Amino acid sequence: MPEKPYKNIEVQGDKSSDVVWHQASVSHQERVLLNGHEPAVLWFTGLSGSGKSTVANAVDKMLYELGCKTYVLDGDNVRHGLNGDLNFTDSDRIENIRRVGEVSKLFVDAGLLVLTAFISPFHADRELVRTLLKDRQFIEVFIDTPIEICEQRDPKGLYKKARAGEIKNFTGIDSAYEAPNSAEVHILAGTKSVEQCASQVIQYLLENKYIQQNDHSENTKEA
Amino acid sequence: MPEKPYKNIEVQGDKSSDVVWHQASVSHQERVLLNGHEPAVLWFTGLSGSGKSTVANAVDKMLYELGCKTYVLDGDNVRHGLNGDLNFTDSDRIENIRRVGEVSKLFVDAGLLVLTAFISPFHADRELVRTLLKDRQFIEVFIDTPIEICEQRDPKGLYKKARAGEIKNFTGIDSAYEAPNSAEVHILAGTKSVEQCASQVIQYLLENKYIQQNDHSENTKEA
Predict the structure, then answer these.
(1) Closest CA–CA distance from residue B175 to any residue of chain A (Å)
(2) What is the pLDDT of residues B57-106, one digit of tens each?
(3) Contacts of B84 in chain A (CB under 8 A)
(4) CATH superfamily label, B38-220
(5) What's the whole-model pTM score?
(6) What's the pLDDT at A25?
(7) In chain A, where are the structural domains located?
(8) Nearest chain B Cα to A200, which residue?
(9) Looking at domain A28-214, which CATH architecture does it have?
């Protein structure tokens, strides 16, 4: 058994059966120190087909290779799990975003850079998530792709169904997308490659000292 | 800008405006590799006042000092946030545990050792969480403290209120606690110190190869 792990655990005296237990816990600052970067939510927002999830995953990959602790929350791992009880009514959509915000907050508290990829079309919902977090912890990333391009891509055939009236309240067709007016990162993604979009996010994180070019990436550069 | 982060991002050709984007993503196995330990949920269960949260935080501290990536989910960070919309009705208590299970699953997917501290009195609810996770990812830790000791401690004065009839359906008083019959770790906590209880959990993780005594702890042993 290692010696070190028990060294800092203080145990107070045993007063017969009425044991008074000292609560030792790891502070947020200690978790940040272990990871070597500042935690935050990178909140990707944009139309269906804009490339939110693709860019978020590309950024995630770059951060991973810099040795950062990260996680991506998107429809794939949230819709059928945590939010499996929710539908697409207005109140359920708000609750969907609220829960993603609260879970993001837990991940940030754990010291991670968490990337979320949800359309999140309404300003008020995104601001609600911003208020859950502390200063610098909420980074809004607007994937600004013209709807014509999104509709041309239509990876899931949703625009086609919305145009045919088979889907109601589809963002950009018969439901509003309220574009952010002061996103921390605004990416004109329609004419850029995934690499260029992701690099713009990484550049923001470097310039604002969330991450740094560390030895980890130097060591593996020539591999 | 670092060279390395962009190396593994493959970008497919730009076919005019119809850009086909390659989805690069970090695999679960890659996240595990970066952290250097196997992720899992340590699901602490036991009566109110049994010491679940205290022991979980002590284990967390020990794991932190071994360089493991960890997080504690308990009433403090879940009840008022993610589960702030839930009450103490039967259905809300089940939903509370379900959400904690789903969030734990996300943390495990992110590669962390997550420690949860909830009474979770019902066998069926704990088993529901177990089924959400893969083999080895759910470790039930039963903090088995006699109710007499819990009631004597009564850190939040809840037993007193339950005895006075001010709280209904209180676990151990007028609502059942279904003790696990095959918990991975069964701690007879009534006569042990926090350190002894936490060490028993660490011992389990070492013996079952979730964690190892690594260089990190060696380096700091004499500090």
Answers:
(1) 24
(2) 999 999 999 999 999 999 888 988 999 999 878 888 899 999 999 999 99
(3) 102
(4) P-loop containing nucleotide triphosphate hydrolases (3.40.50.300)
(5) 0.86
(6) 86
(7) 28-214
(8) B1
(9) 3-Layer(aba) Sandwich (3.40)
Residues A47-59 have a mean pLDDT of 96
Chain A positions in Cβ-Cβ contact with residue B62 (cut-off 8 Å): 5-6, 9
Cβ-Cβ contacts under 8 Å between A and B: the total is 207
Using a CB-CB distance cutoff of 8 angstroms, which residues of chain A are in contact with residue B103?
Answer: 82, 103, 106
Question: Tokens for B28?
Answer: 């679960």
In this predicted structure, what is the pLDDT of residue B18?
39
Task: Give pLDDT, residue A219.
Answer: 42
Q: What would the DSSP string read from start to end of chain B?
A: --SGGGTT-------TT-PPPP-----HHHHHHHHTS--EEEEEE--TTSSHHHHHHHHHHHHHHTT--EEEEEHHHHTTTTTTT--SSHHHHHHHHHHHHHHHHHHHHTT-EEEEE-----HHHHHHHHHHS-TTSEEEEEEE--HHHHHHH-TTSHHHHHHTTSSSS-BTTTB-----SS-SEEEEGGGS-HHHHHHHHHHHHHHTTSS---HHHHHHTT-
Test A34 with B202 for CB contact under 8 angstroms: no
Nearest to B49 by CA among B173, B137, B221: B173
User: What per-residue confidence (pLDDT) applies to B214?
Assistant: 62
Q: Which residues of B are marked as active site?
A: 120
The pLDDT confidence band at residue A13, using thresholds 50, 70 and 90, is very low
Pick from A24, A198, A199: which is nearest to B57 by CB? A24
Q: State residue A21's pLDDT score.
A: 57
Would you state the structure tokens that stand for residue B73, as one six-digit string? 């989910």
Write down the pLDDT at residue A101.
97
| pLDDT over 70 (residue B12) | no
Q: What's the confidence (pLDDT) of residue B15?
A: 33
Which of A52, A35, A51 lies closest to A43 in space, CA to CA? Answer: A52
Mutate to test the interface with A, among B50, B62, B70, B132 (most CBs of A within 10 A): B62
Please report where in the chains the tokens 């545990």 appear, as a residue: B97
Q: Is A25 a catalytic residue?
A: no
